[in-house]
Design brief:
Blueprint: E1 2-7, H1 15-28, E2 33-38, H2 40-43, H3 50-67, E3 75-78, H4 84-93, H5 98-103, H6 105-113, H7 120-135, E4 140-142, H8 148-165, E5 176-178, H9 213-221, H10 238-251, H11 255-261, H12 267-294, H13 296-314, H14 318-321, H15 329-339, H16 345-352, H17 364-370
Parallel strand pairs: 1-2, 2-3, 4-5
The protein binds tryptophanyl-5'AMP (TYM).
Length: 381
Amino acid sequence: MRIFSGIQPTGRKHLGNYIGAIAQYVSSQERGEGIFCVVDLHAITLPFDPAELRERSYDTIAILLAAGLDPARSTLFRQSDVPAHTELTWLLSSLTELGRLQRMHQFRDKSLAQRELVSAALLLYPVLQAADVLAYRAHEVPVGEDQREHLELMRDVARRFNSRYGDGEDVLVVPEHRISQVGARIMDLQDPTSKMSTSVGSEQGTVYVLDEPKAIEKKLKSAVTDSGSDVRRDPQKPGVSNLIEILAAVRGVGPEAIESELADARYGELKGAVAAAVVDYLAPVRERYDALRRDERALEAILAAGAERAEIRFGKRHIGRFGIVEQGPDFLLKSWCLRHGSPDGNKRHEESQRGPKAFPHGCPREFAARQPNSPLAPSIN
Ligand code: TYM
């Protein structure tokens, strides 16, 4: 099984990102082949500073490594290093309804919050996300609850692609999301009706992965709770429910277990227990992070090797060298270019695997591969 997920190199990563996503990436390494991507191209859909983006990309990769992603087992790379993502985005955008993109919650929230330019890229964000996953024909996508809508769109685009261009074959895998039962939506500690978030959340209500233990304690001990005194989950008690959920997630148990353990406890005890558990939970990541982050050369080397592997194992250069043609972005591009409007597209597609010259009319990728010094050049074949 192939598992793909992406994380934006924006702001500082918080407990919601960690519990909802990063911890799932790490555990998924036991179940399948992981591909994890620092999605810098998604980060430019909002105004950004290039130097800052570069720094934050290093921060993010260092956090993933400190959390336990192992570059020897998983493919770890930066999105902009693998051009297939943007190429496939364009092709998939022609299969995506504009109205649906305009109705996506994230687009509506983020465009409303934007005081400057609302970019067309912000609208296309979910198509790029679909391309990320579909390019690798991943089966499973670990994400937090807020990504459900994007995953549904991605599944529909994959189905539409298959039915229009697959000639009866499931060329694209329709991926499943993996949203955990506990901790898929961690809420802001000061406003537990909104999700914990770097962009809109409060500083005091957001626990960052790299916060000092004292800061973590302070934030959790001053978390907003609710009227009453029962430690139990209830839609009327979002603050207490959130703390129970956090404690359950970091201990790896169900929230019912926390409710029965703390049935007679006061809110203060609940907060103390959550603070202690979160400090212990994040301590090893913080300890490993500094040394990893300091060595930017090593981080670059990991990213470069990851991008190379993403292309070789799943992309263009797989073709020819290993004789496997049914994987990777280039297969999709070729299928598209060659089958589109052509009754014998399949045959021509098969012929195309014998060498780029078979297609002088050229699909864009083929042209690219023939350019001298192109990273896609067939020298590896
Ligand atoms: P990003 O960087 O905004 O979020 C990274 C992951 O963190 C999860 N998350 C949360 N989980 C629980 N509680 C929260 N409060 C919380 N806040 C964030 C998100 O659900 C996400 O899983 N669009 C993606 C990036 C992406 C992607 C992809 C994901 C780009 N391409 C392909 C999967 C597959 C995002 O929101 O990143």
